[in-house]
Structure prediction request, 275 residues.
Amino acid sequence: MTDAECVELLRWAAPRLGLRWEGFRHVRGQVCKRMARRVKALGLESVAAWRERLEADPAEWAVLDGLCRVTISRFYRDKGVFDALGGRLLPELLEAGRARGERVLRVWSAGCASGEEPYTVAVLFHLGLRPRFPEVRLELVATDADAALLERARRGCYPGPTLRELPLAWRQRAFLPRGEEWCLRPELRQGLDFRCEDLRQRMPAGPFHLVLCRNVAFTYFAPPVQRRVLEGLLERLVPGGLLALGAHESLPEGDWGLGLASGALPLFRREFPPP
Prediction:
């Protein structure tokens, strides 16, 4: 499959999947290789033949949808975001919750891939915040549409390079070596709930104090789907709660009742309703 054939196929197929092909512009290599392997596995001679197969077989669209999931993840990805969450934003949320007598921090990692993001939050909470808020427990829901990635997430073991951006002190305290991998300590997995859910179809009930929806909906989903997803996220976010997007993502146009929470970082706070 040539690059031109891949781009043409993405342009044709993405709208039918609720996606936008532009989101794949800089990362399409991963997707193109998967699609080329699929054409070969089916014994087809051309991309055109696969398009004919897609037109005739609805089940093949589910296969294509799975091939379009870009999986780039690592611990502490976008350092500034997690520095801001751990340094000021989450402590402020926890202080406010303490004043109201709350004892739970509820977090949702949407599109969690193989678990690096939710485990980063768990490490940040247990090693960075728990000493200051010992009465608070973490409840973290992590969702992804890819069941195979979720199985990797539940193992909680990763190659060393995936951890290179995590603060060294936390890396040494949070992980145990196992062969060529590093595995998260069992006590840091407490309160995590991994679920196989597609954002376009289903979301956990909430409410949440922090929602991380990074490098999924607002990169790859078509604009109407982005708006529908954002509405669902906001329904599940408490007033004053935080929404984290990817470093190169932006909110759909419109007044969503969100304000920047930390300078120009893609961190937004849900505004409180008027009294």
Remarks:
- The first helix runs from residue 3 to 13.
- The chain has two domains: 3-67, 79-270.
- The beta strands are 104-110, 137-144, 157-159, 175-178, 181-184, 192-196, 208-213, 237-244, 258-260, 267-270.
- The two ends are 59 Å apart (CA to CA).
